[in-house]
Amino acid sequence: MKEAIDCKPGQIIKKDGALYVVRAWYPHKIGDRGGIVVDMKIENLDTGNISMIQPRSQDKFDDVILERKQVQYSYQDGGMYVFIDKNTFDQVEINSELLGDNLGFLKENMELDIFFHEGRAVSVVFPTFVEMEISYTENVVRGDTSGKVLKKAKMEDSGLEIDVPAFCNIGDKIKIDTRTHEYVERVK
């Protein structure tokens, strides 16, 4: 059994016999003696419905046994993305919905982990950090030093758009956190 306080985003939980993936997780204290509750945004893996629940931190969810496969991205075929299992060299097809918001980070030969439950892919885990090249960004207004100045930048191939500091230019390689979709640092 897994307690609600231990259910981080991306993890699979079982609630009322159905599988859910945790999309967001916000623990907070209520009142002086109310204890800790966890606001959780969860997505039903069968229906795709998203709901908010608010279990107490010690509430428990059933354990889910998952099989992990290390894969390498190969190519896209229609709406499916084809990966090669690094151990067996079998092809694994994943739809774009399972890749979610991180689809923009997907690059040829990228290594990922895919988790399966009873033969069905239920979760894709991207590397924590990826390096991408800026393909387009605009110049910032000169003299704007009122604080942390950010501007929009489009990334190579995918067109993923994130906020970057004003000193980043077209052609710069940057490190991005795939969990938060935020700029980390410029890569030399």
Instruction: Assign the CATH architecture of the largest domain.
Output: Roll
Strand order of the largest sheet: 9-8-7-10-11
Strand tally: 16
Kindly report the CATH topology of the largest domain.
Answer: SH3 type barrels
End-to-end Cα distance = 45 Å
- Report the order of strands and helices: EEEEEEEEEHEEEEEEE
Helix tally equals: 1
Task: Give the strand content.
Answer: over 45%
Integer-rounded radius of gyration = 20 Å
**Which spans have pLDDT < 50 for at least 5 consecutive residues?**
none
Under the CATH scheme, which class of the largest domain? Answer: Mainly Beta
- As a percent range, the share of helical residues equals under 10%
Label the overall shape: flat
Task: Quickly give the structural class.
Answer: mainly beta
Sheet with the most strands?
5 strands, antiparallel
Polypeptide structure, described:
The protein is mainly beta and about 190 residues long. It has 3 domains: about 60 residues, SH3 type barrels, CATH 2.30.30; about 60 residues, OB fold (Dihydrolipoamide Acetyltransferase, E2P) (Beta Barrel); about 60 residues, OB fold (Dihydrolipoamide Acetyltransferase, E2P). Helices cover about 0% and strands about 55% of the residues. It contains 1 helix and 16 strands. The strands form 4 sheets. Strands 9-8-7-10-11 form a 5-stranded antiparallel beta sheet. A 5-stranded antiparallel beta sheet has the order 14-13-12-15-16, with no helix packed on it. A hairpin with a 5-residue loop joins β13 and β14. It is flat. The mean pLDDT is about 85. This is Elongation factor P. Pfam families: EFP, EFP_N, Elong-fact-P_C. InterPro entries: Elong-fact-P_C, NA-bd_OB-fold, Rib_uL2_dom2, Transl_elong_fac_P/YeiP, Transl_elong_KOW-like, Transl_elong_P/YeiP_cen, Transl_elongation_fac_P, Translation_prot_SH3-like_sf. It is found in: Cytoplasm.
